[in-house]
Design a protein that fits this description.
6-stranded antiparallel β-sheet
Length: 92
């Protein structure tokens, strides 16, 4: 299990990506609001205190701060096989 805090400046975002093939990810929004789209699910905005998960093999096409004025952060907990050392891989 690996935990990481992801922070976004106002209007900040991550490029489209996927995670290690074995990774099950639980995310909890710590502050602000996060806009997210995983696989074919609709785009959602998660606010402070809300959470979501990503199953192994999921594609995360949108991961960004939903605000242009307020920073945002989330706690991401990865449950991953020991041999999977690249947790996040950008999509082309």
């Amino acid at each position: 299990m690996i935990a990481a805090i992801v922070t976004y400046d106002p209007s900040g975002k991550s490029p489209p990506h996927h995670h290690a093939g074995s990774a099950f990810i639980y995310a909890q929004v710590l502050s602000g609001s996060i806009r997210s789209k995983v696989d074919d699910a609709p785009v959602r905005i998660y606010k402070t205190g809300e959470n979501f998960y990503e199953a192994p093999g999921s594609k995360h096409s949108i991961s960004e701060n939903a605000s242009k004025k307020v920073p945002a952060s989330l706690l991401a907990v990865f449950i991953v096989d020991f041999d999977d050392n690249k947790l996040t891989v950008p999509d082309n």
